[in-house]
Amino acid sequence: MVIRRAFAVWLMLGFSGCSADFGGRCTENDECAASEACTQGYCLPADQVPDMGVAPARCGPGDAWDAHGVPCPDEATLALWRFDDGFTPIAGPGQTAPTLTEGDPIGVLRVDAPAFAGGAAEFFGDSGQQYGHSGSVRAAPPFTVELWVRPGAAADNRHRALISNVQRDGDANRRGGFSVIIDQIEDNDPTRYRAGFEWTEGRGTTEVYSDAVLPRGVWGHVAVVVDAGRLHIVVNGEDAEFDAPNLPDRGADLQLGRIADDRDRQFVGLLDEVRLSNSAREVSALQAIGRRAAP
Fold first, then answer.
1. How many domains does the chain have?
2. Which residue in 15, 72, 83, 260 has the fewest CB atoms around it within 10 Å?
3. Is residue 128 situated within a structural domain?
4. Average pLDDT over the chain, rounded to whole?
């Protein structure tokens, strides 16, 4: 799989002589201007391609928080996508992070619009990423999903998956698993979104939503906690509580930016700091983090 990256910060470095299609998508050099090369799927200046090496570590041994006020990976962290230098997740001590198993291009890694220092992953509604299930990556209660999201303009009012472990068995109406989703608050209004949680068992699918508003183009914090019969959706510090679903771990792969085999529900926008934990994180702590993001 070719992972495509676009670093819009390059534009701020004063590059000149680029074609009008600078940063345009490509598969080979012939599709770019003479002074450009097809690099990681984009037309970029041939002699000015910046270093794509690994970003410095943000957490030292034993650190609970990094310099940006974000929790460092702990023993409960099954997978954390920071998008600082790529799309490979890290995991906490004693955990094994999932590995990429399927290769749709995820979109673009952007450093001009991250929620924190480093990068953010941009999705275009036509891509996603699948990570293999492992024994340590269990998505049965208790668990917490936490992420930062900047919604884009979806083409229609279908809800879109941010992270999902929905599993299909060949019949579109028979599947199991959950998805953290966003949806337009008003049909055909792509400027205001709400976050929700969808789960499926057998032929039944249930969705619940927070009433908090996620404006298009604005970073927001979303967390979902499932534990002890209760489900919390925390959006920018606002907590909505529901009865918890029955969610046995079916061993399904994790999906970022999509629901398995459902091409109509792929996410449009940016994600950062996507974290899956095998514990119920304190709602009050998640509220404190989210209040910093409230628009």
1. 2
2. 15
3. yes
4. 75
State the residue range of the domain holding 29: 8-45
Q: Which of 261, 264, 223 is nearest to 130 (CA)?
A: 261
Residue 73 to residues 8, 65, 76, 231, 294, Cα–Cα distance (Å): 28, 9, 8, 23, 24
Q: With contact defined as beta carbons under 8 Å apart, do 271 and 249 qualify?
A: no
**Per-residue pLDDT at 13:** 27
pTM of the model: 0.75
Same domain, 14 and 105: no
Both tokens assigned to 48: 């000015």
State the pLDDT at residue 167: 73
Q: How many Cβ atoms from other residues are within 10 Å of residue 156's Cβ?
A: 11
Q: Which residues contact 236 (CB under 8 A, 6 or more apart)?
A: 212, 214, 220, 221, 290, 291, 293, 294, 295
Same domain for 120 and 179: yes
Task: Please return the burial class of 62, using the count of CB atoms within 10 Å of its CB with bins 0-12, 13-18 and 19+.
Answer: exposed
